[in-house]
Write a structure and sequence with these properties.
four-stranded mixed sheet; mainly beta; Immunoglobulin-like; binds copper (II) ion; globular; 2 domains; 14% helix
Amino acid sequence: MNKSNLCKLSAMFSAVLLLAVAAHISQRAVKAAPPSGAGVTGTIKHGGLANVVVYVSEGWSGGESTATSEPEFNQKGCQYQPHVLGLDVNQHFKVVNSDQTSHNIHPMPAPGGQNHEWNKSQPPGAPPIDTSWPAQEVAIHVKCNIHPWMSGYMVVVKGPYGVSDDKGSYKIDNLPAGNYTLTAWQETYGTQTQKITVAAGKPATANFTFKAK
Ligand SMILES: [Cu+2]
């Protein structure tokens, strides 16, 4: 049985269980009652590798957080969308449940650091969880305590970053002229670094190639 069927099955099972409980309660109720919710662009080469986070690991002198958006980490079809979420230190994000089943999101930062492990249940229709990470960490593994196949990552960095799309393309906006070291992280292949020079008013290009292990 594939995962999405399992997901539907678990949603169905929850619904059936709920009905059974409701029926049971109503029966009891009946018995008991009386009768009356300027940057960098590049490509990750490996036949176009998605979900690679490229960030500035040396040379950045701006603020820790340059991101202005509040991205979503969605639980949809019993999978995390996006699979890898790039974030700045202290950048807020929302954990959303779009499924008709309950999820229990469980991010697992390395023990002993400033980022602390947590887990929270989100039943269908529950409000988004709005949160952020206080420290850089590449990367935080995320799992669901209800669906063991659900796996995702949060990559928390300082300064500008980009995440590759389905074609392997990424873009880092707002990187001023200067010399930098870029690091590209991928969940299976690890990290690669590259020095780049960004000239004023001219976007630089930095491609990375990950070889199969
Ligand atoms: Cu789940």
